[in-house]
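Q: What would this complex look like in 3D?
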Amino acid sequence: MMLAWTIYISFLGALALLLLPKGSATLARSLALLTTIVTFAITLTAFVQHRTGALLTVTQKSWIPSLGIEYHLAADGISLILLLLTGIIAIAGILFSWNIERRVQEFFAFYLLLIGAVYGVFLSYDLFLLFVFYEIVIIPKYFLIAIWGSTRREYGAMKLALYSFIGSAMVLVGLLAAYIVAGAKSMALEDLARFPFPLHFQMWAFPLVFVGFAILAGMWPFHTWAPTGHVAAPTAASMLLAGVVMKLGAYGCLRVAMTLFPLGLGPWGFHVLGLGSWRDVFALLAVIGIVYGALVALVQKDFKFVIGYSSISHMGFILLGLMTLNQLGLAGAVVQMFSHGVLAGLLFAVVGRMVYDRAHTRDLATLGPMNLNKAIPFAAVTFVVAGMASMGLPGFSGFVAELMILIGAWRAFPLFAVCVGIGIVAGVAYIWRAMQQAFFAEAGVEPTSMQPPLPPISIPERLGAILLIGASVAVGLYPQMLLNVILPALHSPLFDGLRKGSWQ
Amino acid sequence: MTGIVQNLWLVPALPILAAGIIALAKQRNRVFAASLAIGSMTLSFLLSLCAFAHVLWLSHRGEAELQVVNFRWFQFGNEWLRLGWMLNPLTAVMLLMVTFVGLLIFIYSIGYMAHDENFTRFFCFLALFAGAMLGVVIANSLLLLFMCWELVGLTSYLLIGFWYHNPRAAAAAKKAFIVTRIGDLAFFLGMAWLYAQTGTLLFYDNGAGCLEHTALASLVAQTTILGLTASTGIALLIFCGAAGKSGQVPLHVWLPDAMEGPTPVSALIHAATMVAAGVFLIARIYPLMSASLMSAHTGMALPLHPTVALQVVTWVGAITAVFGAIIAVAHYDIKRILAYSTISQLGYMMMGLGVGGVAVGMFHLLTHAFFKALLFLGAGSVIHGCSGEQDIRRMGGLRKLMPITFATYAVGMLALCGFPLFFSGFWSKDAILHAAHTWSVSQVPFHLGAFGALLTAFYMTRQVYYVFGGSSRLAGASHASPHASTTPRESAAVMTIPLLILASFAMLLGLIGTPAWPWLQAFLDGQPTALHFSAFANVYLLTVMLSSSLLVFLGLGLGWWFYGRKPMEDSQKAGAMPDAMPDAVEQLQPRIFAVLNHSFYVDELYAATLLRLNAGWASVCDWLDRWVWNGAVQTVSHLALGLAWADDFVDTRIVNAGFDEGCQSVSRGGQILALLQGGQVQSYLRRIGFALIALAVFLLWGARG
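A: Here is my prediction, written as structure tokens for the whole assembly.
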């Protein structure tokens, strides 16, 4: 199958970039763009052809026979959607970093390495392989931030790397324990998912692995790497970070933690503070994340921090959707993964590329008097559209996803659903405040007298914005496009343990 | 004829499509933008006419008038989420009203916005708004209605803040969006609850919809907290959304501020259509609002049974009606007076829905849409003529200078006051008062409504005398606003012709709902009508009609007494600034008249007591409006901000600092350990030597023992 080539092409592209002669920046950019377009074309073809959404094995080869580890790539509906998202974000990220001038080849090489590894995670069906790709992701991420970043970049990069490693260490411990307890000499996801782990084992392994992945998904209170990391990262890296890397964590929660240890979601048999299971605990953390992220975003002075915290809020929706454990909530969580990926990418693109690279400040109070909606109207319009989509206006993907999650949550945790409503109102308020302060503040002194006019929005930026908005609107108007492949995947044998609801 | 039902989606789709095309066009293409918007609106209007004719035809043949088209949107858990549109008499009437008033306002906007640099953008938003509003009207699914509802809120925001460089406009737009969003949150929760209970959000679905008997019976059978049935709880939550959109107390605070938008926007959105969307929503979900155990058992709706939900609607409406009217007495901005008047009239509509059913509320909605759009457009014409002046104290004498505007404005004013027999407002307001009079729960809403009618007549008379009576005071204020042209002139035909059309409707529209020929009532209820003048012989009806007429005359008379009787330029001749001139209500005895004619002292005493009390009360209400309701909203927002700051503090100082602290202790540990690794071979050797000695001593010690 062609899908495996998404990984290889990205890696080859990275290698080719390093071999290019120095000083050929345009060539490097074009090559990177071409690579991502090819991988996107592959994922899109697979998405269009594979309408059933059932599991599709791409390649399966023995890798370390003595340990039963295989090189096993496969895709079902959920991974197809995330692959598609990766393809879209990858193209947009390159379009929005067209202005990178320093160490261009290396930048795009790291970028493609990151993309390739992300494709790898979404395609891996062997847990060891998944873990390997998951680790590879961290390395280019660190360098992209530490070299091309801005505000406190070493700090942000290091914090991000440390959090990632702590999370993956937890995951590794859980996976190894599962491997040993199962004793079947196999790291294949479906083999382990089929094994009936004892209840007491699941009760500690589930939270371990879940939290391990959820750290990368920005779960409160392990979210603090995200805003600093996003802010420190260059635009394309923030887009990837919020757009797909955070999705890796959510994907791992759903794909690994919840399928391997479904009994871990069951009741403890006792209540602490009204919480009776890990499911309640994580749902509560998700709701706190939604409200808390939105409230903190409301008082930020740095434009990019607003978006950074909004990501925490939106990722909370995904985790809440997962914890509803009903089909509606789970499907909603996957749609939200796609939706947030696209919209967070777009928001970071506006803030990081369109505004910061021109105005050289992200301070909302300083941006106000610059009269940005006159200087760069395209950026203002894009931000308004992205903000509307982000606050869940009907017609955009966010509305559909949040609606599904909320109704799913209403069935599972009625009280939490009400609290989430507060988060939604705060979501309106912070977008509003940021928009008003950054673009539509009272026109101060005429900017032209003091400083040179800002360069106009370039063609690649326009293309990138149209691509992302188009993706969000398409899903918002016709969500069945995604649900056609998500629902069969949720009905596959892999999710038997979850679906049978042994916790009820 | 069935084709119209299948293609009804075109009615909202055409303006939205037009908006999309205009958005892509360049700012320069003014003619293109305006003609596209007006063309799409005309087509929508024609389609609405067809739809209306279709419903009429159906009702003539006695067939079922409710026709729905449902389609699948996406898989929602195990079932499909379905949306759809519907055509019934309510939809048909609303469609006709929205497209017709909308079309007139679009045409009027060509003149009003002619000099605005963002002309194209204005028409884009206007068309988008019209499309969204029409979507609300045809939706057969609470979800689709909610989606269009949000889009309506968004476009309203965009249009209020159209002149965003004016900070007050920007603030007003934000306030409007956030206040209505608070109501929408309750709406959304009600919707989620409804879905969880009934498993559908379609209104009508061949017996399986949420407004049909099966679903309602299950809803009224369930009791939740505080002994309310599930249907009441859901209905009240949805009513919160309607109250936010329709400016009911205490969520009305955004509506007066929304007057910062261009005047056609005020006319279209904040008078005729959007604010009426809340009333329409209640009319749409009326089976849910009126669902009670009794109706569930008998299997048919009893429209006059006062359920808890309807009682809430009635009380909120009645209080709003008086509240808005009192405040309107104490304002000087021509558009703000109309805004408070709109709040008051929306209160009447809600009250009408609560006490009299769909037809009563909708009748007033329709008549109000026409005469209030007329008044706003007239006010716009006045403002346009006075070069942007909005303070009624600086107008005056426009009767001769703007004759068409004056004539049409007077028609609108008389319709709003409910001047008997010849004006539509009389009939629709009378229907509400009559229904309130026969309400079984309490007579207080009737008295409130009657008092509101008196006040309405009074403040409108006051406004008209200020604006059109006497002679122009603009010149006196010209040094304050140097751009003001000295002589106001009549607006262009593109603005006055819509005024004339609206004025004729403001007079004639009342004829469709008179007690003698209650066509609208029958049409909405699906019954045949007949003309019978004997309805007027009903004693109760006549009493209510006469007393409300008397109140109207009393209000007009009082207004004339205070504002029309003596020319208003007197004080100006004395050299006073028009702004400094006190309002007649506040004025104490004028000395000259006091000396000459003692008989007036009685009246002036009344003025000094009763009406001063009234004015005082008005300012109390105004104060309440500014400080209590507004303050409540502000307090909540400050609390939220405070919480947000606290969260931010926790995040940087505790969550984040915990991480940093952890890292630092690891790093300190590393530094301490690093001391051991000095890199000097001598020190390593020294340590090895010490260790060897220690080990030797230890071993020897052990061997000795």
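A: To summarize the key features: The two ends of chain A are 40 Å apart (CA to CA). Residues 327-359 of chain A form the longest helix (33 residues).
Q: Very helpful, thank you.
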